Amino acid sequence: MxxxxxxxxxxxxxxxxxxTIPLMFLIHVGFCMYEVGASRRRNHIHTLMKNSMIIPxxxxxxxxxxxxxxxxxxxxxxxxxxxxGAANTPWSENMGPNLEDRITGVxxxxxxxxxxxxxxxxxGSVIERIKSSAFWILAVVIGSFAWIIDASWGWHYAGxxxxxxxxxxxYASGVIHAIAGGFALGILVVxxxxxxxxxxxxxxxDIRPHNPWLVCVGLFIIYAGFWGFYVAxxxxxxxxxxxxxEITGTTWSATTIYxxxxxxxxxxxxxxxxxxxxxxxxxxxxxxxxxxxxSGGLAGIITASAGNDLYHPMQAMIIGAIGVFIAYKMHFYxxxxxxxxxxxxxxxxxxxxxxxxxxxCGFVLWGHPSSPYAGFAExxxxxxxxxxxxxxxxxxxxxxxxxxxxxxxxxxxRIPKEVELLGLDFATQQEQQAAEDDVRKAEDALxx
Amino acid sequence: xxxxxxxxxxxxxxDVSVIYPFAGHEVLMVTIxxxxxxxxxVWCHRWEKEDHEKIIAEYHKRNR
Lengths: 448, 64
Fold this sequence. Notes:
heterodimer, A: 3-stranded antiparallel β-sheet, globular, B: mainly alpha
């Protein structure tokens, strides 16, 4: 901030990331609306609060240890970068108002909103039968621990997955979506379906959303928030000298998180065309079902996100459509075959679409440099497949399954059957009824 | 006396770093935060258990 140009660059970068934060806040608003809309009337308040309390819990734990993990773990378990981690511990002077550091707070918050999203994705799939207290522990595990390890490995300019696998996931097909989908699947296997979801012969019953409008408006709002997510994934403006890699010349550019050049124009084209490909395919597959068409738009973006910094818009559209086809078919196959009750299709929309998107990216961007630095592996199908397995399986499914198993063994995972039948909001509804009766009696007394 | 490191703004901002109160006690503040976070989970588990017990009792009362 010692010259006008430095001050402008600093304030622009600070403001750029800051704007993404309220935009990404909309993702959480959308998820809450979507979940409440999908739940039945007897579970509304608990469903809302289960998701809403992700905000404070993941925020404080991401402050306590999540942010440190990102900076310290790029080469974990081979080594821990104590020096980079030190500036990002919760007791570091950078983690509070500091006139020498004007960026850490907004950068931290941009990552934090990704953390909320990871936990929120999981929240929808387990509604109406998980204990809130159990979910909140799981939310901390995915939001402030598992996802940020994967970000450190595969969404960091020096992460080992980038260096050795050539892993490329510019807008988080795997880093957020595949891991959250895998984590949700791990919990669902242990948690089991809602009562009445499957007939005695195993045929799945359709537990309809109580308010399809709320579900669709929620998904629409997630689309809006997703713009912030995309923009937050870029470095807005950086020069080759600061990057310090192989790029020559003095042309400044926007880059991905890997510091590979792209532009806001590129991601704007591809966000919209992958959304379009997803919606078009989902409309055909579901024969115009509103929930799946909106979800398909989301899954289209998620599938193409790994390479949306580079794809041609028509490639993004086709890739989005392919991802939706696979995710949609997989959702119903897994539901029938394994009797898994994913209440909102989160495993399909985020997990399967994210996984497929990573693999497709490996073929379409085969040979493209994953990094501006010398010695990094190039993008390959096998590097992307290994990355997809790590995201969905190793850091997603496994931690979800293990923690759910532990909670279940202590009887802390699933609500009692009686509570599931009467509804999680039973006490609240009784209090509301009593209050209404009381007022009505008072009104009647006034008329006598 | 000031709880922050600043007692006057007659300074060159290039020399100013942290401006929050009680700088130097960050570990203590974080420790309090962590204890509060863990205590919240324990409270929640107990509160939810009590809530469920009431609903279970009501369920059995209705289905006697």
